[in-house]
Design a protein that fits this description.
Layout lengths: L17 H5 L7 H4 L4 E8 L2 E8 L2 H11 L15 H8 L3 E4 L4 H7 L3 H6 L5 E2 L3 E3 L20 E3 L10 E8 L3 H10 L6 E8 L1 H9 L1
Parallel strand pairs: 2-8, 3-4, 3-7, 7-8
Antiparallel strand pairs: 1-2, 5-6
Length: about 210
């Protein structure tokens, strides 16, 4: 049976590197995968270590927009397709904390975008954070980005796991969301790191400067 790339609808065998084809592929054709710029680096934001798999570029931005705002849920699998095993290895025996979306946004989309990305992965998750309103980091600049801490809240301290925690998000633009989550959780569990699918180059430059 032929398998089709969920991004371009062409055969997943097109432009597929031999070694990846030999391993059975990951459900995405080689041409589409080549648009994901590999990063696989760690960055330090104050006391929080953040690991990123890819750089945030125009291709990923458009794909995320189609997935989230276009409600194209079939794209959920593509963002972690090539790194699912690595994410599992990095998070096994830990608890993943997906960054929350406002309930209004989840209702509009009909799904929670981060949970759909993680579906089928044998990783323990905990939704101990809530977001009272939609707050898009990329639309805010400078100090106003820090206001994310006013819309993100902790559900209950009793819900915070005692295992090592891993904050999870799709894009790290300024780090404000992850830092707000870290500040809420560290009083109850100080074993916290972060995993993001993509990191904005401006954030990388800021970390390098520091």
């Amino acid at each position: 049976m032929k398998h089709w790339c969920p991004i371009c609808f062409k055969s997943v065998d097109e432009h597929q590197p031999f070694m990846r084809w030999l391993k059975g592929g990951d459900g995405i054709c080689g041409k589409c995968r080549a648009n994901f710029e590999e990063c696989n680096e760690n960055y330090q934001l104050h006391a929080l270590n953040i690991h990123a798999f890819y750089y945030y570029n125009d291709y990923v931005e458009n794909l995320l927009f189609q997935y989230k705002e276009g409600r194209d849920i079939a794209l959920a699998e593509v963002f972690l397709a090539a790194v699912r095993e690595e994410l599992f290895d990095r998070c096994r025996h830990k608890v993943l904390i997906p960054m929350p979306s406002a309930q209004r946004k989840i209702s509009e989309r009909g799904f929670s975008h981060l949970h759909e990305m993680l579906k089928g992965m044998d990783i323990e998750c905990c939704d101990c954070l809530v977001k009272s309103e939609d707050y898009k980091q990329s639309l805010h600049r400078g100090k106003s980005r820090g206001q994310i801490k006013n819309v993100m809240k902790l559900k209950s301290a009793s819900e915070i796991p005692t295992k090592k925690l891993v904050l999870f998000d799709d894009v790290c633009t300024s780090g404000s969301t992850l830092l707000a989550a870290y500040d809420l959780l560290r009083e109850y569990n100080d074993q916290i790191t972060a995993e993001v699918i993509c990191v904005h180059r401006h954030f990388v430059e800021t970390c390098d400067e520091n």
